[in-house]
């Protein structure tokens, strides 16, 4: 690393959206998975510090790791109400230079979070689906579900999408949006079971704290991809032919709380093991695969660092006056020349 110490910058969610493409998001997710499988991510113990909930019903999570190949360290702070998908929340990442322990950036990951959440599960589904999977069922109609269609369409040759929302008019509007935005055949189903019937891929993206699927609805060969641990229900979790998660450690407590003490033993593999070939993954086209991902902070930090790097390259981001050996805010912003000196 070396060179002059830069002032850290604030990278906004809008700048992240401007600087990152869906392909970038998928690539960074996959890189982080491979680094993890290679033992090149340094994790804390425990993996997460949580307050859930506080007296106002909010959940707080602090996660961190060091990505040695970049290298960069990151600390992620999240605070959200009971509905984790709420746009009213705090999602921030502090990036740190491990060579100096100096701050590099504060990244608002409000946009990144939605992208990473569905990109990570769409990528994993691609590794686990039967060849030519083209029929997608989507349970939910919020931001994650809508963004999910975009990412599944980028990973699969989709031909047909069936969506289910609790209100049929919302589902119909969602289906119309899919037809317009993606040029796909899309219809609104009147039940989750109807949507899942005959699907090669099922994406559940809801705020539900109870199952939204029944095991009997899932046919041979289907990949069920859930962004919420409760969504598949215990019967599907136990009876799937292949149960894949992004982190055994991260999901262990939730699996026990939702499905019982034996549930962690139902897990067959992690996404990183599948992506790197350390686990064979699907071995029969009739296997029913359950995929549950919460997303890993390694992916969030990799994505935040890419946004930071591109912000520097394009002179975006707002300089921040904190950290050692940096000028005060008034000095930093005294003139464009001075501000640029601390960017270089």
Structure commentary:
This protein folds into two domains: 9-112 and 297-343, ornithine cyclodeaminase, domain 1, CATH 3.30.1780.10; 118-292, Rossmann fold. Residues 326-344 have low confidence and may be disordered. The longest helix has 19 residues, at 110-128. By secondary structure, the protein is an alpha/beta fold. The strands form two sheets. Strands 1, 2, 3, 4, 5, 6, 7 and 16 form an eight-stranded mixed beta sheet that branches. An eight-stranded parallel beta sheet has the order 10-9-8-11-12-15-13-14. It starts with 8 loop residues before the first strand and ends with a helix. It has helices at 13-19, 22-37, 110-128, 143-155, 168-182, 192-196, 234-239, 248-259, 271-275, 297-313, 329-332, 336-343; strands spanning 9-11, 41-42, 48-51, 59-67, 72-80, 90-97, 102-108, 135-139, 160-164, 185-188, 201-204, 223-226, 242-245, 269-270, 289-292, 318-319. Helix 2 (22-37) crosses helix 3 (110-128), helix 2 (22-37) packs across helix 10 (297-313) and helix 3 (110-128) packs across helix 4.
Observed structural traits:
globular; 344 residues; disordered C terminus; 37% helix
Under the CATH scheme, which class of the largest domain? Alpha Beta
Mean pLDDT across all amino acids: 92
| Low-pLDDT sequence parts | 326-344
Structural class estimated from helices and strands: alpha/beta
Whole-number total of structural domains? 2
Total helical elements: 12
Strand content: 15-25%
What do we call the CATH topology of the largest domain? Rossmann fold
Supply the CATH architecture of the largest domain: 3-Layer(aba) Sandwich
Distance between the termini: 13 Å
Report on the biggest sheet.
8 strands, mixed
User: What is Rg?
Assistant: 21 Å
Instruction: State the order of secondary-structure elements, H for helix, E for strand.
Output: EHHEEEEEEHEHEHEHEEHEHEHEHEHH
Helix content: 25-40%
Principal-axis shape equals: globular
| Total number of strands | 16
CATH superfamily of the largest domain: NAD(P)-binding Rossmann-like Domain
